[in-house]
Amino acid sequence: MISNATIADTLLDRLIHNGHRIELGGESMRKLAQSDHLG
Fold it and tell me: Among 5, 10, 15, 26, which one is most buried in terms of CB atoms within 10 A?
């Protein structure tokens, strides 16, 4: 892990600043796969 809080904060800021938010809809693939095994 990163022991210096300032460096950790800077890295997270850069990651979030350049990131994109993707919202997904529909059923969870985990739920669908689980129902296939039970059904």
Answer: 10
Q: What residue has token string 């994109």?
A: 20
How close are the terminal C-alpha atoms of the chain, in Å?
43
Number of domains in the chain: 1
Sign of torsion over alpha carbons 27, 33, 38, 39: positive
Mind listing the pLDDT tens digit of every residue in the chain (39 residues)? 789 999 999 999 998 888 888 999 988 888 888 877 765
Q: How far apart are CA 25 and CA 7, in angstroms?
A: 35
Residue 33 CB neighbour total at 10 angstroms: 10
